[in-house]
Specification:
The chain has about 425 residues and is α+β, with helices and mostly antiparallel strands. Helix content is about 40%, strand content about 20%. The strands form 2 sheets. It has a 7-stranded mixed β-sheet with strand order 1-2-3-7-4-6-5.
Length: about 425
């Protein structure tokens, strides 16, 4: 068992240490006796981008089934054992990863980590559980076919990442989910849930020695990882085009996007500050002021940075009356280019940095939040000291950095736009 790379977080008074268990399981560990809880977050490389091309939805269905019975316990028995000890265990799947979280009282840690071990190593994939989850998923997909936000988002990814794994819906389609077999789930499980592919963070009232034993119990017997199917890098496609999903609704839902900068790129932090000024700052952002406050075009509007393993984009959303779609999009595009050409004022830049620095600690007010933040940082290979460095990186952003980020993100002003509704005048 080893511990190294201690850091004193700028956002929290805790110390993060690396820990390697006796069996070689690595984790980031924060020991805190404030409450008698242990929070665990873990992420396995490989998500829905690994789905079979003709059957999207396998990874997400896998995540929903991992706690639906494992080892000697069927679904009901497994859930009863979790409930009897107030153990919280959940799994999720995204484009690039299958992850999960565990929260337990310290006195139930042995039971909690044993149930986690069973879910990871011995999921049952009982046919009745598969059919129940399949039916729930298909019902949700059918309901979403009338949701303009979901349909706009789905079309956006189809256009933005055409021909790529990211173009496929993570939750699948009615047809693909209906075709998923137990063999598909077992194959996905073997491919993703493996040693050498997992990042782990543990926060709570547990020392390194006991944690080492529990990590070996839950993760020590995982199979060694084999190479995943490669996911080729891709840039956002079809910039400068607009697409309409025809839905009979009085208000059109809009998704728009431009190129982005990945989290691992040195230009990410300037892009993050820029995005806050443009559309990430809620009531203070330029888009909120111009689109909602000055013109009353929409109730909400905003942007965020999206960073995947093989792609990045700046992603935006709003909704407006069908007859005002063109006006709203013109205002958004104009504000992007004005920000690129003129840059923010000194006051605007300083306020953005002050907010992003001051609000960072709010993400560390619970053990679970700390664990999830740490495992995300580990997954992105940003370094165990990232929390300590992050605010200094924000503070050091200059107008020149903003200008460089704006050039990369806004470019010549072309956006990919998808409108779900019946816009007029386009």
């Amino acid at each position: 068992m080893t511990a190294s790379a201690d850091i004193r977080s700028a956002a929290s008074p805790t110390t993060v240490k690396t820990l390697t268990s006796t069996a070689g399981v690595e984790a980031w560990h924060v020991e805190s006796d404030v409450v008698p809880l242990i929070a665990v977050a873990f992420t396995f490389e490989g998500g829905s981008a690994q789905d079979p091309e003709e059957r999207p939805g396998v990874a997400q269905m896998l995540a929903r089934l991992l706690d639906e019975g494992a080892g000697p316990y069927d679904s009901d028995a497994f859930q009863e054992r979790l409930a009897a000890r107030a153990i919280e265990l959940s799994f999720n799947a995204g484009n690039d990863a299958v992850g999960g979280s565990l929260k337990t009282l310290v006195k139930h840690a042995d039971e909690a980590f044993e149930l986690l071990r069973l879910a990871l190593l011995e999921p049952r994939f009982d046919q009745d559980s598969i059919e129940r989850v399949r039916a729930q998923t298909i019902a949700g997909l059918r309901y979403q076919q009338n949701d303009p936000g979901v349909m706009a988002t789905r079309r956006f990814f189809e256009e933005g990442f055409a021909g790529h794994a990211y173009a496929r819906p993570t939750s699948g389609t009615v047809e693909s989910v209906a075709a998923i077999t137990r063999d598909d789930l077992a194959a996905m499980h073997r491919a993703i849930i493996a040693r050498g592919r997992v990042k782990i963070a543990v926060v709570g009232a547990i020392d390194a020695e006991r944690l080492s034993v529990l990590l070996d119990k839950a993760f020590g017997d995982l199979l060694e990882a084999k190479p995943l199917k490669p996911v080729e890098p891709i840039l956002l496609q079809n910039l400068g085009t607009r697409h309409v999903v025809d839905l009979d609704v009085p208000q059109s839902v809009i998704r728009f996007g431009t190129p982005g900068i990945p989290w691992r790129d040195p230009g990410f932090i300037p892009a993050y500050v820029l995005n806050h000024i443009l559309g990430g700052g809620a009531f203070t952002s330029r888009l909120f002021q111009e689109v909602r406050e000055k013109r009353g075009l929409a109730y909400s509007v905003g942007t965020s940075l999206v960073s995947y393993r093989a792609a990045a984009m700046t992603w935006g959303y709003t909704a407006t009356k069908n007859e005002r779609v063109t006006e709203a999009l013109d205002v958004i595009a104009s504000e992007m280019m004005r920000l690129k050409e003129e840059g923010p004022s000194d006051e605007e830049l300083q306020k953005a940095k002050d907010y992003l620095i001051g609000s960072y600690a709010l993400g560390f007010d619970t053990s679970t939040k700390i664990a999830h933040t740490l495992v995300q940082i580990a997954f992105e290979d940003l370094g165990i000291d990232y929390i300590a460095r992050r605010n200094d990186l924000v503070a050091s952003v200059t107008p020149a950095d903003i200008a460089s980020a704006a050039e990369r993100i806004f470019g010549d002003g072309r956006m990919l736009t998808v409108i779900a509704g019946r816009p007029t005048g386009m």
